[in-house]
Amino acid sequence: QVQLVESGGGLAQAGGSLRLSCAASGRTFSSTTMGWFRQAPGKEREFVGAITWIGGSTYYADSVKGRFTISRDNTKNTMYLQMNNLKPEDTAVYYCAEGSFLTTVAGRYDYWGQGTQVTVTS
């Protein structure tokens, strides 16, 4: 059973930075992609970005492109989300997810973490 545990959320000021981590355990060979999503109160879960375990190909939502960077450490089975130049609209619960292929659709991911809160003040 795949388990994903996020960490690193917290409070930041606009223009500041935070780094989130997602530690994966119990991965299977079919789990090739990990993604980050976020959900603000009253809004639908939104794709942030994703990375493939092999090759490290990345894809980002336009809203975070140039500000957020996804990376992974295969030796630690851990994915990271470096968030720079944070904006108040980045405030949300951030989730990591694991799936079989790179997609922006939340429903296509098989496993999810519990989420970590990110709050950005102006």
What does this protein structure show overall?
It contains no helices and 11 strands. With 122 residues, the chain is mainly beta. Strands 2, 4, 5, 6, 9, 10 and 11 form a 7-stranded mixed β-sheet that branches. A 4-stranded antiparallel β-sheet has the order 1-3-8-7, with no helix packed on it. Strand 7 and strand 8 (78-83) form a beta hairpin. The chain is globular and about 40 Å long. The model has no long low-confidence stretch (mean pLDDT 94).
Major β-sheet profile:
7 strands, mixed
Q: In percent, how much strand structure appears in the residues? A: over 45%
Instruction: Tell me the distance between the termini.
Output: 40 Å
* Tally of alpha and pi helices: 0
| Overall mean pLDDT | 94
Helix-strand category: mainly beta
Low-confidence stretches: none
How many strand elements? 11
Q: What is the overall silhouette?
A: globular
Evaluate the radius of gyration.
Answer: 13 Å
- Secondary-structure element pattern, one letter each: EEEEEEEEEEE
Percent helix, as a range, is: under 10%
How do the strands and helices of this protein lay out in sequence?
Elements: E1 3-7, E2 10-13, E3 18-25, E4 33-39, E5 46-52, E6 58-60, E7 68-73, E8 78-83, E9 92-99, E10 109-112, E11 116-121
Parallel strand pairs: 2-11
Antiparallel strand pairs: 1-3, 3-8, 4-5, 4-9, 5-6, 7-8, 9-10, 9-11
